[in-house]
Amino acid sequence: MANVRKNVKNLFKQLGVDDKSYANQLVKTAQRLLELNQVEILSHRAPDGDTLGSAVALCRGLRSLGKKANVVCADMIPQKYQFLLEGLDEQQFQPANVVSVDIAAPHLLGKLEEKYAGKIDVAIDHHMKNSMEAPLKWVDEESAAVGEMIWMLLTTMDVKIDKPMAEAMFTAITTDTGCFKYSNVTARTHQIAVELMKYGIDCAGMNFRLLDEVTKAQLGLKSEALSTLEYHCDDKCAIVTITTDMMEKYQASPEDTDGVSNIPRSVQGVQCGITMKQVEDGWKISIRSDEHVNAAEVCGKFGGGGHARAAGCKFTESYEEAKQKLVAAVEEVINK
Ligand SMILES: [Mn+2]
Question: Which ranges constitute the DSSP H helices of 198-238?
């Protein structure tokens, strides 16, 4: 059995972390994970690189310790992340424990909410507002990606990290940091990336496929979405719109809209970039902001949430009404 406490001490020395309560949380979580044997690891709906990379790395890590483990997700795994699951066939076992990774709230379980809400043993996450209910929760806002937390856990649990695990954790970190360029990146993010690179992973190739490569559908959608760009709040707020018509025209899948949400925020002078995406029952809002605007605060006004620089919410109102409310909320936050 791993000497978790000693491992954490060594790890924190290596990372230059000196924080007792933080160390205790890591120790407690690692010890609990070591007790679990037949584990289901939950990713959030509309899975991204962090939730999948983290779940896959943890799953492989637990299996390497002789445990049974599966990754579970409500939605289809986007094609660009499917490489993570290669050789990770579903195991047959009677599930005894549930771990959630990168899931900030029960509704993010999607259609699995009913089955799993209230049954989660360990919740591992890095979102500011985490409303999951679990006997053991480790929420670390300092981590740019849950992938960082998984690396600390596996290291602490004496898992012999291999290349597929390293690829999964690198995927988690590089996607949640936009290739190490968002403000969530810390020295530790880079320190962990250095460790992961030691497993001979193809970082450049992964970064290209995960972040730069686009499909024709994505590009078509992007060009059309761009033509909807409009400015508000003295040009400090920019909005692009994606309608279901556009989605149909390019036969775009939900993940094809990924490249659009960063565009409005990238305009010089824009503090708050908004993407309004039409969904069945209204508008899904995604906000990217700079240090002047707390995106989570804006989205919080409408029952949403997320991170300070990236957050989301939903409107069931008409397009114009939703936009008006959003702009008013952004204006208020900008003028605060
Ligand atoms: Mn994440």
Answer: 203-207, 216-226
Q: CA nearest 326: which of 268, 265, 274, 260? A: 274
Distance 104 CA to ligand 1 centre (A): 9
Residue 65 corresponds to which tokens in the numbers above? 């310790």
E strands present in 174-236: 230-232
| 102 C-alpha to ligand 1 centroid (Å) | 5
Contact call for residues 95 and 120 (beta carbons, < 8 A) = no
Structure confidence at residue 245 (pLDDT): 96
| C-alpha to C-alpha distance for 169 and 147, rounded to whole angstroms | 5
Q: Which residues pair with 98 in a beta bridge?
A: 40
Q: What is the DSSP secondary-structure string of 256-280? A: GGGGGTTTGGGSTT-SEEEEEEEET
Interval 2-52: pLDDT, tens: 899 999 999 999 999 999 999 999 999 999 999 999 999 999 999 999 999
CA of 321 relative to ligand 1 center, distance in Å = 30
Boundaries of every domain in the chain:
4-211, 216-334
The domain made up of 216-334 has a fold known as: Diaminopimelate Epimerase; Chain A, domain 1 (3.10.310)
Tell me which residues of the chain have a pLDDT lower than 50.
Answer: none
Q: What residues contact residue 98 under an 8 Å CB cut-off, 6+ apart?
A: 39, 40, 41, 42, 116, 119, 120, 121, 122
User: What letter does residue 209 receive in the DSSP assignment?
Assistant: I
Please measure the distance between the N-terminal and C-terminal CA atoms of the chain and give it in whole angstroms. 53
**Å from CA of 220 to ligand 1 middle:** 27
Ligand 1 midpoint to CA 336 (Å): 28
Provide the CATH topology of domain 4-211.
inorganic pyrophosphatase (n-terminal core) (3.90.1640)
Q: How far is the CA of 296 from the centre of ligand 1 (A)?
A: 14
Describe the strand order of the beta sheet including 38-42 as a list of residue ranges.
68-72, 38-42, 97-101, 122-125, 136-139
318 C-alpha to ligand 1 centroid (Å) = 30
Ligand 1 geometric centre to CA of 45 (Å):
12
